Amino acid sequence: MATSDDRRPPLKGTPDAGSRESGAPHPEPSTLRREARLARLALDPQREASLSDDLVRILAAFESLQEVDVSNLEPLHQPLHASLAEPLRHAAPTDPAAAGTSRRDSRLAAPDPTSAVDRARLLEGAPEPIDGHFGVPRTIEQ
């Protein structure tokens, strides 16, 4: 069980969890208790205080990301895992100028509503496929 002596230090570039001077949100204790109940966690008051401090530090870290200038960065888009995108690779010329598009735009073929992704290949990475579908743990008891 965590004590105040073995608390982790604040994340680099973030205020101490006890500091209310940051612009980061400070969730109400009732919010933490509600989230713990939804996650089916039983928290004693000491653990609740520790988690509250952790949450404040996490929120402060995300708040500090708002200050990062990303205006000159190109967005990263990867709608498919690389191994699944391989069959969709465009068979265009290797010279992007010849294709009339940038190299980035020519990586994937245009969508074809008549083609389908191989279900067996998709399920290769599934931990527990069930009858040709992705198996997921039950989250609601009946």
Automatic annotation (TrEMBL):
GO terms for biological process: regulation of translational fidelity. Residues 1-35, 84-142 are annotated as: Disordered. Keywords: Transferase. GO terms for molecular function: transferase activity. Pfam families: GatC. InterPro entries: Asp/Glu-ADT_sf_sub_c, GatC. This is Glutamyl-tRNA(Gln) amidotransferase subunit C.
